[in-house]
Write a structure and sequence with these properties.
Layout (H helix, E strand, L loop, with lengths): L2 H4 L14 H4 L4 E8 L3 H12 L4 E4 L14 E5 L6 H4 L3 H5 L2 E2 L2 E8 L2 E6 L1 H5 L2 E6 L2 H17 L4 E3 L4 E7 L2 E7 L5 E8 L6 H5 L11 E10 L2 H8 L7 E7 L7 E7 L3 E9 H6 L4 H9 L5 H4 L5 E10 L1 H4 L5 E2 L2 E3 L8 E3 L2 E3 L1 H20 L6 H11 L2 H5 L2 H10 L2 H11 L2 H9 L1 H8 L2 H4 L6 H15 L1 E2 L5 H6 L12 H7 L1 E3 L5 E3 L4 H4 L1 H5 L12 E8 L2 E8 L9 H5 L2 E3 L7 E3 L4
Parallel strand pairs: 1-2, 1-11, 2-8, 5-13, 11-18
Antiparallel strand pairs: 3-7, 4-7, 5-6, 6-21, 9-10, 10-11, 12-15, 12-16, 13-14, 14-15, 17-18, 19-20, 22-27, 23-26, 24-25
Helix pairs in contact: 3-7, 3-14, 14-15, 18-22
The chain binds flavin-adenine dinucleotide and iron/sulfur cluster (SF4).
Flavin-adenine dinucleotide (FAD) binds next to helix 3, strand 3, strand 12, strand 15 and strand 16.
Cofactor: FAD
GO molecular function, one term: monooxygenase activity
Protein name: FAD-dependent monooxygenase
Length: about 600
């Protein structure tokens, strides 16, 4: 009997599997495959394994698949991809996504000027379709299908189970250990446990050391009537739009903003390089508010603002951390756990690559088993990622070849001086037509250096030289609508934290070094903490001991949204909360 059977799991349990320890205690269960995490990577791996008849158990720590997950989020089906979400899950677009997105713009902003570029060409390139999604709805829909198909193999999907490590025998990985269940052995372990993969770390395949390897994403889901969306964005009921923002609206922090239309809401957020965020001691929620209250957004929000949810998560930068060899023994990493999230200029693609990798991991295991040696699955998976072109998208050779020069300080200083000079302005005017083409060029986007020059200076200068004044509503329009002035008033941090749902368990993060030097960066970088704010996770104070003054940091994980930021920027022992505990996103 399998764990899933032993746990008495039937169809109704998929959303709320009450795993009874007594049912499974005392024996180490075995499955052909265990998949950890039911995001797009895990769902794709599990579906592809089950379709090939592999006995598969999926373990998800959330109360429901998607309850821990955040993305912008546009999910792509690339023409060149070996696996797509609708290929593995027929009916996905009709039942699990929000709106097709067929318009794609980039707004370069400088003060009250904007230069808008049409990025349809880069958006459409290699794109079969692209939909906006909300993760709770999407992932829980996928999980129901995964549960149905994996049950037919003798497995199933269990929620509220946190895998806390790898089971080893004579140094070899042979399974997983969990907070809520006895250890489980498997011939294949797929770690699809996301950006803060404890399994990748346990296997020595992921470092959490360098803020330069990560982005931090923060997002608000904003309520808006479908007819109002159609009207204000000029889209039909079966259409949608994506708007990206860069320039001087984020206090010089490297990164940008996004706005995507959902069925009856908007997803508005920011994605910043974590090293830039910490270096400038910027507060993520304030940068998000800077976007929400910007006059450019007034054309769509028009003074209406009802925030459904505030959320945040780290995102790996595949250019730097996509693991070229994402496996160790029976363990295969897919999706964010393998660093497979592509962010190059205006291109943000993670979910589609997680799906492709999940499908390839399953295919590799089945191929290896058919050849009589399942232990070769990892090598085959690595080869398939390369031969199917996935690795080249994640870690473009162009970026690696040009990085040393393009990210050199002297080159960036020279570039900034040139573009900010009258000569640079004349050049931009002379080649105005080329600007849009450059932003639509996959060749150039694959080389975008991670510098302030490319993320802040160039867009700002484009707006200054080529832009026109932002046309917001007038004071009179706002006053006629009963507002003091045009613009919206997002909730403050305390209200945002108060509106989230938590089932607080034991503290899951331990502060190892409380000195401000070691852990102070978390006070501002944590998306639910802020300088001089008493209600968040991280606080700092100056204490006097033995006549000496010391600045120290303290941590309270109660309002933690499990974004992972402090694992990278502070000295912590970082773990996810136990199954079913911690924050629960309703939108994601
Ligand atoms: C603000 C923001 C905007 C983004 N925008 C986009 C976008 O527009 N398009 C796009 O394609 N991508 C976008 N991304 C990235 C995208 O969300 C990820 O690349 C994608 O979710 C990765 O999928 P995954 O399956 O690897 O991991 P995840 O979706 O993170 O899923 C991991 C799953 O594993 C579970 N889990 C974790 N640890 C354990 C454990 N120990 N035991 C059991 N279960 C566990 C989690 O609960 C979760 O369900 C964005 C991300 C952010 C934060
Ligand atoms: S305590 Fe750490 S993991 Fe939790 S929200 Fe803050 S930075 Fe993110």
């Amino acid at each position: 009997m399998t764990d899933a059977d032993a746990a008495g799991l039937d169809d109704a349990d998929v959303d709320d599997a009450d795993v009874d320890d007594a049912d499974v205690a005392g024996s180490t269960e075995h499955y052909e495959a265990v998949v950890v995490g039911a995001g797009p990577g895990g769902a794709a791996a599990a579906a592809a394994l089950a379709q090939q008849g592999v006995e598969t158990l999926v373990l998800e720590r959330g109360v429901d698949a998607g309850s821990k997950n955040v993305s912008g989020g546009l999910i792509y089906a690339e023409e060149s991809a070996p696996y797509t979400i609708d290929g593995l899950f027929p009916g996905f677009r009709e039942e699990a996504s929000e709106r097709p997105v067929d318009e794609y713009f980039m707004h370069n902003v400088a003060g009250d000027r904007v230069k808008t570029l049409d990025l349809d060409r880069v958006h459409d390139r290699d794109t079969d379709w692209c939909d906006a999604v909300l993760r709770r709805r999407m992932d829980s829909w996928l999980a129901e299908r995964v549960h149905e198909t994996t049950r037919e193999t003798g497995g199933g999907l269990l929620t509220e189970v946190r895998v806390n490590g790898l089971l080893r025998e004579d140094g070899e990985i042979v399974g997983v250990t969990c907070d809520e269940l006895d250890p489980i052995r498997a011939d294949l372990i797929v770690a699809a446990d996301g950006v803060n993969s404890e399994l990748a770390r346990d296997a020595g395949l992921m470092d959490w050391d360098d803020p330069g390897d990560w982005f931090q994403g923060v997002k608000a889901v904003v309520d808006l009537d479908p007819d109002v969306i159609n009207d204000r964005f000029g889209v039909g009921p079966d259409g949608g739009a994506a708007h990206l923002f860069s320039g001087d609206l984020f206090d010089g922090v490297r990164g940008g903003g996004f706005l995507y239309t959902n069925e009856d809401s908007l997803s508005i957020g920011t994605v910043f390089h974590l090293d830039s965020l910490t270096a400038r001691q910027a507060e993520p929620h304030e940068l998000l508010d800077g976007l929400l209250t910007h006059p450019l957004l007034d054309q769509w929000l028009q003074g209406e603002y009802e925030e459904r949810e505030y959320s945040a998560k780290l995102v790996p930068d595949s250019k730097k951390v996509a693991h070229p060899s994402p496996h160790s023994g029976r363990l295969l990493l897919v999706g964010d756990a393998a660093g497979q999230m592509q962010a190059q200029g205006p291109i943000i693609k993670g979910m589609n690559h997680a799906v492709a990798a999940g499908g390839l991991a399953a295919e590799a295991f089945v191929d290896a088993r058919t050849r009589g040696d399942a232990s070769k699955a990892g090598d085959l998976y690595e080869r398939k990622l390369r031969e199917e072109g996935v690795m080249e998208k994640l870690r473009p050779r162009r970026y690696r070849a040009t990085r040393a020069v393009a990210e050199h300080d002297a080159v960036n200083r020279l570039g900034s001086a040139l573009i900010e000079s009258p000569l640079g302005a004349a050049g931009l005017r002379a080649f105005e037509g080329l600007t849009e083409r450059a932003f639509n060029s996959p060749l150039l986007l694959g080389m975008v250096p991670d510098t302030k020059f490319s993320y802040v200076t160039v867009p700002t200068r484009i707006a200054e030289v080529l832009g026109k004044p932002i046309e917001g509503r007038s004071e009179a329009d706002a006053s006629a609508a009963g507002e003091d002035e045009p613009g919206v008033h997002p909730p403050d941090l305390a209200d945002r934290i108060g509106d989230l749902t938590y089932d607080v368990g034991d503290p899951h993060i331990e502060l190892l070094d409380e000195s401000y030097e070691a852990s102070g960066a978390a006070v501002t970088a944590c998306p639910v903490s802020a300088e001089d704010f008493g209600g968040g996770c991280y606080r700092d104070e100056t204490v006097r001991t033995n006549g000496e003054e010391k600045r120290v940091v303290s941590l309270d994980t109660q309002p933690c949204v499990e974004c992972g930021t402090c694992a990278v920027v502070a000295e912590t022992e970082w773990e996810h909360p136990s199954g079913g505990k911690g924050v629960e996103y309703k939108e994601g």
